[in-house]
Amino acid sequence: MTKKGGKGTKKREGSKKWMRYDLEGKIKRKNKFCPKCGPGVFMAHHADRDSCGKCNYTEFRKHRK
């Protein structure tokens, strides 16, 4: 119990794992898998590259003009 006028606990956000998928009929993954780590490890999507947080593998995308 908290004292009167004391600090309470903050509400935490739930897991956001569901944001990695599109659930229209079949499951479609939004990001691609890392070719070095294998299935189950997603690559982060940046403005100019895709990178793996586990093994630091990076694929650069070509600029569009």
Q: From the alpha-carbon coordinates, what is the Rg to the nearest angstrom?
A: 19 Å
Characterize the biggest β-sheet. Answer: 4 strands, antiparallel
Span from first to last CA? 60 Å
Low-pLDDT runs: none
Number of strands: 6
Mean pLDDT: 82
Helix-and-strand structural type: mainly beta
Shape: elongated
Biggest sheet, strands in spatial order? 3-4-5-6
Strand content: 35-45%
Helix content: under 10%
Number of helices: 0
N to C succession of SSEs: EEEEEE
Explain what you see:
It is a single chain. The chain has strands spanning 21-24, 26-29, 33-34, 38-45, 49-52, 58-60. The protein contains no helices and 6 strands. The chain is mainly beta and 65 residues long. The strands form 2 sheets. The chain has a 4-stranded antiparallel beta sheet, with no helix packed on it. β4 (38-45) and β5 form a beta hairpin. The N and C termini lie far apart (60 Å).
Q: What features would you highlight for this structure?
A:
single chain; 65 residues; four-stranded antiparallel beta sheet; 6 strands
Summarize, please:
By secondary structure, the chain is mostly beta strands.
List the helices and strands and how they pair.
Elements lengths: L20 E4 L1 E4 L3 E2 L3 E8 L3 E4 L5 E3 L5
Antiparallel strand pairs: 1-2, 3-4, 4-5, 5-6
